[in-house]
Amino acid sequence: MFDRQITPGLLEDLASFPAVALLGPRQAGKTTVALQIAARSDSLYLDLESPQDLAKLTSPELYLADRTDRLVVLDEVHRVPGLFPVLRGLIDQARREGRRNGLYLLLGSASLELLHQAGESLAGRVAYRELPPLGVMELPPDDQGHLWLRGGFPESYLARSDAVSLRWRQDFIRTYAERDIPLFGGRIGSEALRRLWGMLAHQQGGLVNASVLARSLMLDTRTVNRYLDLLVEMFLVRRLNPWHANLGKRLTKSPKLYVRDSGLLHALLGLTDEESLWSHPAVGASWEGFAVENLINAAGPNVSAHFYRTVGGAEVDLLLAFPGDELWAIEIKRSLAPKVERGFHAACDDLQPRRKLVVYAGKEPFPLSADIQAMPLSAVCRELAARARGG
Predict the structure, then answer these.
(1) pTM, rounded to two decimals
(2) What is the pLDDT at residue 67?
(3) Which domains does the chain have, with CATH numbers?
(4) CA dihedral 117, 118, 124, 130 (to 10 degrees)
(5) Cβ(359)–Cβ(375) below 8 Å
(6) What are the backbone angles phi and psi of residue 286, rounded to the nearest 5°?
(7) Cβ proximity of 39 and 70 under 8 Å
(8) What is the residue-wise DSSP string for 169-193?
């Protein structure tokens, strides 16, 4: 059992909103977190992938109307799209009776579908939280390398061997490509989707051009863009957009794409163990993606994440924009003796960030210059998380 960082914020949302939507990929631990929260009080859990539980909602108004006195957890709620208008009526009725908060915890693994359905019916009544796979702050510091190799899905991370972990991730990828993504995307070729996913892995952290991918896959650009959108909306790929500001510079306009979980990335690349990872050309890109994902998750939803790159060579791997126009410029290095390149200095001259950080693979922070600090990934994540909590 893991102490998930999301739990305090989730409890706070349930104390403030009638409904909370907990989003994230399958097998990230949403159900476990929800059941832990549900165990704190009288509650009801319904798995809408279970025919038995689904049958209870044949007449949802009748079934749920008598259960507004306790927390109802609805797992895979996007599978019953007609449920959201019913929830709106039940929430409004409960409000009139003085029960305003903590009525429903909605779990879903596809943000686009669930947000669209909930946004139409539950506007002003629902808060949203995302549960990613396990991160560096949720595990012992010495396990960071293990986490990087296997990724943060609990079943993969806890597997009894690297081989078993890899098999789990390969099955996960196959299930998503053949069943889950087509469920939301309609007529999608699983083989083409699987090949696209693999191409993104080989271009981890690169500027991806959909038309180039389309030619390689012998598909039209529109189809490839739809596939990319689905991978993003199902929390499998992160689209990191470039920072745009009126700086008088010619800026890169294409986004970067990262396979979000490092373990899935390694499975797509066919990397079986730590030795194969360290010898692979993508090891630097893998570490960058691992760091980017952990940093963004630690910063929280109120911080927007970008990268910065100009035609002239100025570049920042990760630019975090806080409320109030405060910027943190973060360079990511796998080396134990990181060096700051000219492009980072040039970017900082353009952007004037409040913090200039180099995240590296070591364990101790140290200054690289008067205003640039080298810090371990876990230390920067802790600082970001404390700031997100208001600490």
Answers:
(1) 0.91
(2) 87
(3) 7-130 (3.40.50.300), 136-388 (no CATH)
(4) -130
(5) yes
(6) -65, -45
(7) no
(8) HHHHHHHIIIIIHHHHHSS--HHHH
